[in-house]
Amino acid sequence: MTNSDGCPIQGGNRYAGFNDSMKKRAATEISAVTTAPAPCVFCQIAMGAARAHVVLEDAISLAFLDNRPLFPGHCLLVTKQHYATLSDIPSDLIGPLFLNARTLAAAVQRAMGADGNFVAINNIVSQSVPHFHVHVVPRKRGDGLRGFFWPRHKLAEEEAAAVQKDIVGALRDAR
């Protein structure tokens, strides 16, 4: 069975550890299944149909080594259930998912003998696989990466105030 994005929905032990609202949502998705395209590569990895070097797995997420890492130890943390972006993830999964991101970041840093780490999420733009994922990249001083990978610009005070107003309004509308 697949969800509306063409990604697999599995029963049985897949939902071990899910709370009631998570199980209810999964049952709703299963009942709404129609013919869909082939699952994305991250869904294939999550269901064991594609190979990956898995480093962490629980009921809601899976982490594996990036196949094109910035540095050795670069991992991707993905949701097992298919969600395209951060905004698509249900609220009850956010806390457990980011606890896993925090745990993974600390473990990668220790294992790689890194000075720190870079944790990043792309939503749509620069998202090479349309399945939510968190990059955890070990960093060492002098490793060649410069802050963010794109130029930064100072905003004029008036522009900053207008942007602030727009974001505060959008947050008000989101609640």
Biggest β-sheet strands, sense, barrel:
5 strands, antiparallel
Classify the secondary structure makeup into a structural class.
alpha+beta
Strand order of the largest sheet: 1-2-3-5-4
Shape: globular
Distance between the termini: 33 Å
Beta-strand content bin:
15-25%
Radius of gyration: 18 Å
Helix content: 25-40%
Average pLDDT reading: 81
The helix-strand sequence is HHEEEHEEH
- Name the poorly predicted regions: 8-16, 26-36
Tally of separate helices: 4
**Total number of beta strands:** 5
Give a written overview of the molecule.
This protein is α+β, with helices and mostly antiparallel strands and about 180 residues long. It has helices at about 20-30, 40-45, 90-110, 155-175; strands at about 55, 60-65, 75-80, 115-120, 135-140. Helix content is about 35%, strand content about 15%. A hairpin with a 3-residue loop joins strand 1 and strand 2. The model is unreliable at about 10-15 and about 25-35 (pLDDT under 50).
Give the helix/strand layout.
Layout (H helix, E strand, L loop, with lengths): L19 H12 L9 H6 L7 E4 L3 E5 L9 E5 L11 H22 L3 E6 L11 E7 L17 H18 L1
Antiparallel strand pairs: 1-2, 2-3, 3-5, 4-5
